[in-house]
Amino acid sequence: MNSIRLVLHEFKFTQKVFWRNPASVFFTAMLPVIFLLIFATIFGNDKIETLDNLPTTTYYVPAIVTLAVVSATMVSLATNLTIAREAGLLKRGRGTPLPSWVFIAGRVGNAIVISVLMVVVVTLIGRVLYGAPIPWDRLPAVAVTLLVGAASFCCLGIALTAIIPSRGCARRSPT
Questions:
Q1: 3-state DSSP call for residue 161?
Q2: What does the radius of gyration of the chain's CA atoms come to, in whole angstroms?
Q3: Which of 17, 19, 69, 89 reaches 20 to 30 Å from 137, CA-CA?
C-alpha cells in the first residue's frame, strides 16, 4: 500500500473515531458555536468605540474562529494522544507495520479538517445571524494564516502530550 493511501485510510479512521465520540464533538465543534451565540446575544448590540464603533459581533467572530482552531488542533491532539498513550494504543501501534508518521499524519489531518470546518461554520453563523462581514478580499491571507496557525497548534498539541502526566501519576498516595 502506498504512503498516500495509507495516510488517507488513517485519516478516515480518525474522522470516524472523532465524530462517534460525543465528548469530542461537543468540546471541539459545539463549544465555540455556543460561545459565539452566548457572547453575541449578551453583547450583540454594543459597539467598540475605540475601533470606530465596530459592532461587537464583528469583533467576536474572528475571536471565536481562533478559539475553534486552537480547540480543534492543540487541545484535541494533546487530549486524544494522551488518552491513546494511557490506553496503550501508542505502544501497541509500534508493534504493527503502520509507520508512526502515518498515525500522526492522520491525526493532524483530522485536526486541520475540523479547523477548516469550524472556520466555515462560525463565519457563516456570524454572517447570517449577526451580519458580520466576510473579508473576501483577504481570503488568501486568511487561508494561509489558518493553515500556518493550525499546523503550529498541531505541533504544540503533540509537544504538550510529552509533559501531560497520566492519570496514574496525578493521583499520588498521601505518604
A1: helix
A2: 19
A3: 69
Instruction: Write down the domain spans for the chain.
Output: 3-164
Q: What letters, b where the CB count within 10 A reaches 16 and e where it falls short, cover 19-41? A: eeeeebeebbbeebeebbeebbe
Cell triple for 132: 458580520
Q: Which residues, 6 or more positions from 104, have their beta carbon under 8 angstroms from its beta carbon? A: 158
Whole-prediction pTM value? 0.84
Dist. CA 71–CA 148, nearest whole Å? 15
Q: How many residues does the chain have?
A: 175
Q: At what angle do helices 56-70 and 31-43 cross, to 10 degrees?
A: 160
110 CB-near residues (< 8 Å, 6+ apart): 11, 14, 15, 18
Q: Which tens digits make up the pLDDT trace of 33-79?
A: 999 999 888 887 778 777 787 888 888 888 999 999 999 999 999 98
DSSP string covering 115-149: HHHHHHHHHHHHHHHH-PPP-GGGHHHHHHHHHHH
127: how many CB neighbours lie within 10 A of its CB? 14
Q: Which residues pair with 47 in a beta bridge?
A: 55
